[in-house]
Amino acid sequence: MISDEMANVLELCQHYFEVTEGVFNIFILPALEHAGYRRSFETISNGDEFSEASHNPLLPLPKDCLYMDLDSAMSSVLFPANQQMDLGGIVKSWTVQGLSDLLRIERQIQRGLVNAGGDVEVWGGASDREPWVIAIDRPNGSRMHQLDDLLLLLEDGAVATSSTQKRSWRSSRGSMHHLIDPRTMKPGRSSVIQCSVVGEQLVDCEIWAKVMCIIGLEDGMPLFRRHAQRLEALIFTEDGTLHHVKPSANRSKGQWLGLEADFVYV
Question: Which UniProt keywords apply (predicted)?
Answer without folding.
Answer: FAD, Flavoprotein, Lipoprotein, Magnesium, Metal-binding, Transferase
